[in-house]
Amino acid sequence: MVRFLFALPVLLMPLPLAAGAGLQHRDPALVTLEFGAFCQLASVDSVEAPDTLAQRVDLLPRTPEIRWPGPVVPAKPGISFGVRTETGGLQMYPVTIEVSHPPFIGSGMTHQSYVTTLGGEDASINAYSFDLNEEMVPGIWTIRALFDGAILYEVTFDVVSPDTVPTIGQDCGKDFLS
Question: How many domains does the chain have?
């Protein structure tokens, strides 16, 4: 099942960058911004999101830390990747999160989006989790947040074969409960 994640309750580590991968834009309203991968968390609820393959966005029990900072992400089950931000208390709504990616196997889908709140007192994360083989397509993936017609952030990820970065996510899924 395709799952978008967001939770409401920096530091960028250099990694080898693919052409065009990494932070493309950051609005000054964002006090911190971190991006990369983390182990998938079990959701506690979901909200409708008609412009996504799953037709919903999963809600997380907490805002996860980015465990593997940077734009390189293996296409493997149990991995989530995204953008973690803090706004210093500023709350923004409605924020549109857009995800562009290579065509999914079978459906050909290349774009998904949903509306959320960004900011507040705690960190926010907007992320994508790999659940189905059809969505584990290598290539350039972009996550963009828009508020009031302006780009808050745009981050480009290079999704690669798991054997390219075997240490990322090697222990994910051992304690995961669907």
Answer: 1
| Cβ(125)–Cβ(9) below 8 Å | no
- Check: CB of residue 119 under 8 Å from CB of residue 91: yes
Q: What is the DSSP code string of 90-142?
A: -EEEEEEEEEE-SPPTTT---EEEEEEEEESSS-EEEEEE--SGGG---EEEE
For the chain, helix (H) and strand (E) counts, in that order, are: 0, 13
pTM score, whole prediction: 0.86
pLDDT at 174: 59
Whether residue 86 is contained in a domain is answered as yes
**What pLDDT does residue 15 have?**
36
Residue 16 falls inside a structural domain: no
Q: In this structure, what DSSP letter does residue 163 have?
A: G
